[in-house]
């Protein structure tokens, strides 16, 4: 089972994804939090990472995937619930923002345990004013679309509220 949780900055998408992963694991079950963010001296990002770490239940494990998200998912116990936070930081860590979408989707589809993926919905905001911003928006948008095609659930989080998105 694949769940994609989309939202903007400070929308509550990570908290929604954490609740979904916990429910899929049966409340106190095994959840592996797959982290893609690397602070690299960014104090604001480091504070956000700490806040995410502080609210995780103590029985959850964390895998620091960084740029190797596919490898991190492949290394997990197949029965654990995988919570990936976030696809935006994964795309941002790649040279030229290029990710292997087909390989990533194939990895998700072969997992027997549930996967909950957090991503930014970048198509609703201001048109990026830089080439890098445009490339990031397009790369993440294409990844989100590919995952939504195979996901069982796609949830849009706006101001902490959850909107399930129907297939067309």
Describe, in plain words, how this protein is organized in 3D.
By secondary structure, the chain is an alpha/beta fold. It contains six helices and seven strands. The protein has a seven-stranded mixed β-sheet, sandwiched between helices. The model has no long low-confidence stretch (mean pLDDT 91).
Mean pLDDT, as a whole number?
91
The CA-CA distance between the termini, in Å, is 19 Å
- Give the overall shape: globular
Number of helices: 6
Number of strands: 7
Strand order of the largest sheet: 3-2-4-5-1-6-7
H and E order: EHEHEHEHHEHEE
Strand composition percent? 15-25%
Structural class: alpha/beta
Radius of gyration: 15 Å
What share of the residues lie within helices?
25-40%
- Stretches where pLDDT falls below 50 for ≥5 residues? none
**How would a textbook summarize the main sheet?**
7 strands, mixed
């Amino acid at each position: 089972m694949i769940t994609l949780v989309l939202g903007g900055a400070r929308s509550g998408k990570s908290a929604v994804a954490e609740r979904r992963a916990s429910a899929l694991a049966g409340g106190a079950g095994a959840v592996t939090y797959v982290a893609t963010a690397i602070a690299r001296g960014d104090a604001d990002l480091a504070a956000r990472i700490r806040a995410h770490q502080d609210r995780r239940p103590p029985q959850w494990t964390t895998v620091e995937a960084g740029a190797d998200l596919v490898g991190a998912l492949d290394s997990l116990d197949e029965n654990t619930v995988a919570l990936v936070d976030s696809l935006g930081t994964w795309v941002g860590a790649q040279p030229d923002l290029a990710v292997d979408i087909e390989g990533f989707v194939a990895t998700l589809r072969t997992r027997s345990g549930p996967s909950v993926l957090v991503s930014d919905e970048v198509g609703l905001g201001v048109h990026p004013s830089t080439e890098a911003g445009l490339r990031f928006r397009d790369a993440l948008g294409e990844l989100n679309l590919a995952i939504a095609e195979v996901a069982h659930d796609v949830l849009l989080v706006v101001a902490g509220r959850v909107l399930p998105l129907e297939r067309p």
